[in-house]
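Here is one chain, start to finish.
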Amino acid sequence: MTNDPILKDILEFFNQILERKGIEKYYYATYKDLWLKTLGLGTNSREEAMASRTTKKLQEFLLKKYGPRIKVEGHVAEGMTLRFEKIDGNSRQLDVKIDAAKLQAFDILDLETGNAYEISLSDAFAEFFKDVLKSLLDSRVKKLYLCMRNHHYKGAKKSGYKKVRDSEMVQQYISLARLYKLEIILVDLFPECNKNIHSL
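Its structure:
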């Protein structure tokens, strides 16, 4: 079990709202009907609406608990200024202010520890590379938690967490990121799906 209190809260949050289902020996985590009702949604609602509203509820919960320690939707490189030598050879420096509002944001950023938490409830494989790039470009981030679930994607037997975890390319990027002092941790939001369970 993790010692990170924010990650513990994230895992407990999803343990309460997800349940395990299966198709052709592939187990995936889906939202409980009661949770969808809480969100004002149903089982036939769009996946994007389920994911975005769930993430929003998680952010509200964490913000209420941790207050200014965390930033939700904290923009990449917020408040950063870059310094470059002037091209004409002059020894003066040119300051370039980053407009963070035009950049993407972290779902949750712990300002005390430099831990970023990305919640990917649908296409985690595609989001992996975007999230790694964001973290590499923000000097505040020391550790990136990529929080994912297996989900039911067009009947696929591998999606979300399982697809990312088993990708050799992803593992190479994780190793490469260590050279830039970024630790990447893959988190299974609902590990019940990946236990060795033979019956539903």
